[in-house]
Amino acid sequence: MNAPTSASASASASASTPPDLHDASVPAVSAGFRLQWEPAQGNHVLLYPEGMVKLNRSAGEILSRCDGVASVAQVVSQLETAFNVQGLRADVIAFLRMARAQGWVSWS
User: In this structure, which CATH number among 2.130.10.10, 1.10.260.40, 1.10.10.1150, 1.20.1250.20 belongs to the domain 21-103?
Assistant: First the structure.
C-alpha cells in the first residue's frame, strides 16, 4: 500500500479546512440563513429553516456588515467609526470564527 504523497495529503487537508480569516477576507451570511431586524424582538435575528437565533446587539452589528462585499478590515473600520471606539479587530475576528463554527457565515 502506498503512503499518500505530501501533495495529495495537503490537497485533501486544504479541501476540508476552511480558509484562514484575515483582514482581506470577505465574510457573508451563509446560504440558508437570513439576517433581519425584528422590531418585536428589538434586535437582529438570524433566521434558518429550523428556527431562529436571537442575536445580541454586537452580533447583529457585525453580521449586518457581512454582506459578501466588505472585507474584515472594512467591517472593523465601520464598527469602530459607528461606535467611536478603537481596538475591535480581535473581538470581530473571534465572533466571526465562532459564527463560522455555527455555520452562520463563510468567507473568501
Answer: 1.10.10.1150
